[in-house]
Structures are given as structure tokens and as C-alpha cells.
């Protein structure tokens, strides 16, 4: 494995229409489609020089981003449910107003790994375990290639935590905040240390 390039899905309808995130399945906006094309253009030179494979969450906003990026790079998209955002259970498809009124009560004020925000949804511990297991599986399968991954803000943050070998309890005090269309680059150095070369680069969206 040469590098892992993480791409947060681009601007989505749920950013505009007061819908919740999580497993709510919304498409990209026209602006988001333009962002995805710019990401593909940015990565062309890298992909031309490296053997690459492209994975994506199967939720529409991530898959559409990956599909546009893949068309620019001439890469097929491999959909992977394990790369989805946190499972929002009964809140999927609901508005942000509904989620505020219907989330489960919190037992403590600080971040709680075992808090299940919505019925049938994941706890943060379960989410981290699912993302970590998914990344282990992908890296084992694609160990000779650079891996491009299109996912979601929460998923991307937990991929970073997995890369830095965080124990679950370590994410209680750490959060990686990224933005739509941001690109993050991970690699290993000569000491086999896991390196974050670039985090949430959005310079390609500025032209």
C-alpha cells in the first residue's frame, strides 16, 4: 500500500434542506458535482503515476462524488457499506428539527462512547469499530495499491483515528473536523510510522 487518499463527499442536498445527516440518503447539489469534478482533476497526475483503486460509501452523496471523481480518473468505484456515516437509526430521512426533538436523553454531559443517540442507530464505539474493521479489510485486500476513499465527515475522522492507532477511549478527547470536498493524504515513512501528510485540503475548490 503506497498511500491512502481520503475524500469527504461534496456539497449535498442535506446541507441545504434541513435534513439530518447519518444514513439519510441525499444526492449532491450542482455545486457539489462541480466540486467533485475539481477533485478528479486535482488527482489525475497522482493516479497516472500510481496503481490506484477507488472505494466509496454506498450512500448517494458519497457514491455520486466517487462516480464523478472516478470518471475523471478512469477508475471504477467499489461501493462499501462499511464506509457509511454513523448509523442514525430511526432518524434517517428525518429533519434536523425532528432529530433535536427525538434523540435519546444523554446520561452524561461529556462525550460518551456508548451513547446511542437514536433507536436502532450505532453508538460511537460501534461506529469506530465498524470503520476500523472496514479499513483493515480494504488494506489487506489492496496492500499493493494506493487507495482512494470517498466517505463522510464522521467516517473520515474515524479513519484518521484508526490510522493513528487510537484505542476507542482516545477518541473521547479528540475530533478531526473536515469539510465537503476536502482531501486528506496518509502515508507511511521509512520508519513505518503512519503519517498524515495533508489534512482537509480544499485548495482545489478555490478556482
UniProtKB/TrEMBL annotation:
<dbReference type="InterPro" id="IPR050275">
    <property type="entry name" value="PGM_Phosphatase"/>
</dbReference>
<dbReference type="InterPro" id="IPR013078">
    <property type="entry name" value="His_Pase_superF_clade-1"/>
</dbReference>
<dbReference type="Pfam" id="PF00300">
    <property type="entry name" value="His_Phos_1"/>
</dbReference>
<dbReference type="InterPro" id="IPR029033">
    <property type="entry name" value="His_PPase_superfam"/>
</dbReference>
<protein>
    <submittedName>
        <fullName>Histidine phosphatase family protein</fullName>
        <ecNumber>3.1.3.-</ecNumber>
    </submittedName>
</protein>
<dbReference type="GO" id="GO:0016787">
    <property type="term" value="F:hydrolase activity"/>
</dbReference>
<keyword id="KW-0378">Hydrolase</keyword>
Amino acid at each position: 500500500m503506497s498511500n491512502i487518499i481520503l475524500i469527504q463527499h461534496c456539497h449535498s442536498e442535506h446541507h441545504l434542506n434541513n435534513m439530518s445527516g447519518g444514513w439519510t440518503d441525499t444526492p449532491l447539489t450542482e455545486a457539489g458535482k462541480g466540486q467533485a469534478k475539481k477533485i478528479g482533476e486535482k488527482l489525475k497526475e497522482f493516479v497516472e503515476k500510481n496503481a490506484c483503486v477507488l472505494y466509496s460509501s454506498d450512500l448517494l452523496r458519497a457514491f455520486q462524488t466517487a462516480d464523478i471523481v472516478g470518471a475523471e480518473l478512469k477508475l471504477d468505484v467499489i461501493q462499501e457499506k462499511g464506509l457509511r456515516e454513523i448509523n442514525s437509526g430511526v432518524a434517517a430521512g428525518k429533519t434536523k428539527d425532528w432529530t433535536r426533538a427525538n434523540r435519546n436523553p444523554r446520561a452524561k454531559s461529556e462525550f460518551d462512547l456508548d451513547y446511542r443517540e437514536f433507536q436502532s442507530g450505532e453508538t460511537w464505539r460501534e461506529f469506530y469499530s465498524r470503520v476500523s474493521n472496514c479499513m483493515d479489510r480494504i488494506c489487506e485486500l489492496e496492500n499493493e495499491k494506493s487507495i482512494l476513499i470517498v466517505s463522510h465527515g464522521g467516517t473520515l475522522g474515524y479513519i484518521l483515528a484508526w490510522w493513528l492507532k487510537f484505542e476507542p477511549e482516545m477518541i473521547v478527547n479528540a475530533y478531526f473536523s473536515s469539510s465537503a470536498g476536502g482531501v486528506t493524504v496518509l502515508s507511511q515513512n521509512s520508519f513505518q510510522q503512519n503519517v498524515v501528510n495533508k489534512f482537509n485540503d480544499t485548495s482545489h475548490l478555490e478556482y
